[in-house]
Amino acid sequence: MKKYILIIIAFLGVFTINSCSEDDLELSNPNQLSPDTFFSTESQVESSVNAAYANLQPFGLYGRVMFYMMDNMAHENSGNGQQEGDKVTFADFSFDSSLPSIKDYWDGCYRGINKANFVISNAEKINELPEGTLTAAKKAKYIGEARFLRAHYYWLLVNRYGGVPIYLGDGTDNTEGQPRSTKAAVIELIIDDLKYAATNLYDKGAETPGRATKGAAQAFLGKVYLYQKSYGLALAEFNKLSGYALETNYYDNFMEETEHGVESIFEVEYDIALGTEQFWWSPVNGTGPINATKRGQDYGVLDWFNVYPSDDLVAEFETGDKRFAGSFYVAGDTYNNGDNTFVELDFAENGGNIRPAAWKKYQNYYKQPSENGESGINVKVLRYSDVLLMMAECENEVGSQASAIGYINKVRTRAGLADLDVSLSKDAVFKAIVHERKVELAGEQVRFDDMLRWGIAATELAGTNFQVGKNELWPIPDAEISSNININSEDQNPGF
C-alpha cells in the first residue's frame, strides 16, 4: 500500500511548464496509478519529470528563500526597519537549526530529489516502452532531465550543508533515513548525473523553453568542476557550449517579455497567468508549488519591502557602467513605461541610513505603477555572462591571462566599459574577475559562494557576525535530526 501512496504524492507536485500543453501534462486519475501500470505512455513519463521541476518553484527555494538568504549573507542587501525576522538572521548570521527557512530549503530539495528518483529508478521500465510509444532518444532525454534535476537539488544541498544523506531509490525503502555522506560522495553523484544529462539532453533550440538542455548540463558540470578547482576540466565543459551569446541589452535578462533569450542557460519558470491562489499560502510548509515569487515584495521600491541594495554593492559599479541602470532604480528614474518618476528613494531610515538605490532586477515597475509582490518573472539560475567569467577564471589559473582578459572584456563591452589591458598580471586579472562577478551578477545569489571558494569571505564580511569555521555552512535542520535515526546531534555542522 505504501508504494501506491508515494506514487500519488509524487504527482501532487505536477506543475505545467509554460510552453507545454495542459492536455499533455494532466493525469486522468492519479488515484488509479500503480507501479505495475505507470510509465506506459509518453504523457506519463513527461508528467513524472515535470513533477521534479515543480519543486524548484516553492518559497523554500527559488520562490523566496533562495534570493534573500544568499543576497543577505553576501551583504548585497541592507534591511529596512521592518525587515522580517528570518531575513535578519541571514544578514547577521544568527540563524540556527530551528529556523523554518532552513528546514523549508532542506525539505524542498529532498522533495525534488524524491520525484527525480521516481523517474530514474524506473528507467528500465521507461526503456522497455516500444519505439512507437517513445523513441530511444526521448527515453534518454527524459531520464537525463531527471538526473539533471537531481544533480541540481544535491548541488543546492551540498553548498549549504556540506555532506548530506544520499537517496537514490524511489522513496519506498528509506523509512528510517540515511546517514550523512561525505561532501566528496555528493559531488561525485552530481558529476555522474550531469555527465549523463550532458550526453542525452537536447540542444536548446530543439527543446521546449523551460526544460533542461545539453548546454545547461555542460555549463553546470563546468561550474561544479570549477568549485572543486579542477580548472582544466571546467574549461573543457564550458568550451562545449554553443548557441549562446550576451543579450545586447543587459536588462533584457530580467523582464518577463524577454525570458529564454540567447543568454539564458537555465531558468526557473513562473507565470501568474496560471493562477495565484497558492501565492500567499504555499502548501506543505513552504515547499508546495507556486506560480509566482515574492521577489517583488521583498525587493520592492515604493511599496512594502524587506531589503534594498547595500552601499558597498552600489559603490562597486564604475562610472558609466550600463549594468547599474539595469540593476537599480535611483531617484529621478522613470517607471511604468515612463509615466511616473521615482521621487522618494533617498529617504532616511534605520537610524539615519540613506537608501542610495532600490532593486530593479526582477521587479515589475517597468510595466506597472506598483509592485504587489506577485512576480511572474522567471528566475535566471545560470546566464552566459556567468559562464564567460568562469571561463576567465579557469584561463587565469591554468591557461593564459590574455585569454582570461578576452572573456572579461566581452562582458565589459556589453556594459559600455573600456577593455582591460591584456598585459595585466595574474593577480590583477583575479581582482578584475572578483569585481566583474560582483557587479554583473549582483542580486543573483552567487556572491556568497564566490567569496567562500575564493577564501575572501572573512575579509569581505569583516564587521559582520560571520564566523570562520561556522557560517560557511547552514545547520542540519532540527526536524531532520529528530526524525532520521541515522543522524544525531554529533553529526551537526560545527558551531551549531
TrEMBL record:
Domain SusD-like N-terminal: residue ranges: 25-226
SUPFAM superfamilies, per database record: TPR-like
Signal peptide: 1-21
All residue ranges annotated as the RagB/SusD domain in the record: 263-495
Lineage start: Bacteria, Pseudomonadati, Bacteroidota, Flavobacteriia, Flavobacteriales
Keyword Signal on entry: yes
Descriptive protein name: RagB/SusD family nutrient uptake outer membrane protein
Compartments where located: Cell outer membrane
Principal location listed in the UniProt entry: membrane
UniProt keyword list: Cell outer membrane, Membrane, Signal
Cytoplasm listed as a keyword: no
Organism listed in the record: Polaribacter sejongensis
Family to which this protein belongs: Belongs to the SusD family.
Gene Ontology cellular-component terms listed: cell outer membrane
